[in-house]
Design a protein that fits this description.
Structural class: alpha+beta
Mean pLDDT: 85
Oligomer: single chain
Number of strands: 17
Shape: globular
Distance between the termini: 13 Å
Number of helices: 14
Helix content: 25-40%
Strand content: 15-25%
Length: 405
């Protein structure tokens, strides 16, 4: 859900409601604001959880690139209320920037940088956080001060972007790194939160509970739930028991890993030495912390399937293999920028598109020789369309891409 504000005068946005009720209030209702700020039913807490929201308020975030994608990220993050947000984009405002960043206007074209142009109005979204504009390219020493770094533009060479990701991974604790761009109708997102990132809630869904009909004594013990309802547990899930009569050992256990037998039963730990269950109770799923290991940007670009089997998603099953073609095209566009002073292919330029196609074929043949990631045949039409519109940004694509972040 995205919220857009075109503010012409100064408003106060309640910090406790930032990113939730989105109520714009003036000082005449300040006392009421303070009361509402303490409400336990804030939609912000419901959306993120109290623990997550507490961590967000301590985060320092750097956003590199303030075209459409960078602006959408900045706007939504500022509304959630982190400690500080720093913007970096020294590029002077161009007329096409007005179409994707609605905090930029025509009077600023050619006069100020993108970051400076929108920083004032971004500050008005949430006056309770620090919002700064970085005047020079961030050094590694400066990167250490941030919790998460977003890269949304090729303001830096792709080699340097890979170095930033490697630096973030090597930091202790790891610095979150997100690389995302919108290129015409194509977009991508890369996420790296280090080699040991702990997820407390893997799916965000509410836990389920079921009535226990029977628990056997054995190794492993078998749990059977009431036949009127099927469980939705999976192998490896953790559950806890309560109100089980005759087998108090299970009630005292903080969590038990299960293995599914069928939709009405599953096995648990060794219950052969437990007391006999005389009456079933309640079994409830519990969330257990899961450790995730992310792959580096350099490795993921070279071979995304080795990075994660589900990282290339075919949104349209009629276009099987399209995701692989797009990845080859992305590598070719990055290679083009390295040869052309970090510039994307010119908009709808046939010569630049042909150059990207040639690079895609060369990259694919090299990958075949190395047996890394390649396609049987480069689809020239797909690569041509990617190259022709890579320099364009469409505001709706930026918003949709942000949902996946």
């Amino acid at each position: 859900l995205f919220f857009f504000f075109k503010q012409k005068t100064a408003y106060e946005i309640l910090s406790g409601l930032v990113g939730s009720e989105m109520c714009i209030r003036d000082r005449s209702t300040w006392d009421l604001d303070l009361q509402m700020q303490k409400r336990d039913d804030s939609r912000t807490i419901f959306a993120y959880g109290a623990d997550t929201l507490a961590r967000i308020t301590q985060m320092r975030i750097l956003i590199i690139g303030m075209r459409g994608m960078g602006f959408e990220i900045a706007k939504n993050i500022i509304l959630t209320g982190p400690k500080a947000v720093t913007l970096y984009d020294p590029t002077l405002v161009k007329i096409n920037d007005v179409g994707t960043n609605f905090y930029i206007n025509e009077s600023q074209v050619g006069k100020v940088s993108r970051a400076q142009a929108c920083s004032t109005q971004l500050k008005e979204l949430n006056p309770y956080i620090e919002i700064d504009v970085l005047p020079a390219e961030p050094t590694n020493e400066l990167l250490k001060t941030y919790s998460v770094i977003f890269v949304t533009e090729l303001l830096l060479p792709i080699k340097r972007i890979k170095e930033i990701d490697a630096f973030c991974r090597a930091s202790n604790p790891a610095i979150g790194f997100i690389f995302t761009m919108a290129m015409g109708l194509y977009g991508f997102t890369f996420v790296d939160f280090g080699q040991k990132f702990v997820v407390k809630d893997a799916n965000g869904e509410n836990v389920s509970s079921f009535v226990v009909a029977l628990i056997t004594q054995g190794n492993p013990g078998i749990v059977r739930i009431h036949e009127e309802k099927r469980h939705n547990f999976n192998d490896g899930d953790y559950v806890k028991f309560r109100e089980v009569e005759g087998m108090p050992e299970l009630n005292a256990m903080p969590g038990v890993q299960i293995k599914v037998i069928d939709k009405h039963s599953f096995s648990i730990c060794d219950t052969s030495k437990f007391k006999d269950c005389t009456k079933g109770g309640i079994v409830e799923g519990i969330k257990m912390p899961t450790e995730i290991s992310f792959k580096a940007l350099a490795d993921s670009l070279e071979n995304p399937l080795k990075s994660a089997q589900d990282c290339l998603i075919n949104a349209d099953l009629r276009l099987f293999g399209r995701a692989e073609q797009l990845h080859i095209g992305l590598e070719a566009i990055f290679a083009f920028t390295e040869k052309n002073n970090n510039n994307l292919p010119r908009l709808n330029n046939a010569d630049d598109a042909n150059a990207v196609i040639a690079l895609a074929k060369a990259i694919n043949e090299e990958a075949k020789a190395k047996k890394t990631f390649f396609v049987e045949k480069v689809d020239e039409e797909v690569i041509r369309n990617m190259a022709r519109f890579a320099a364009a940004e469409i505001c709706t694509v930026c918003s949709l891409s942000l949902i996946h972040i």
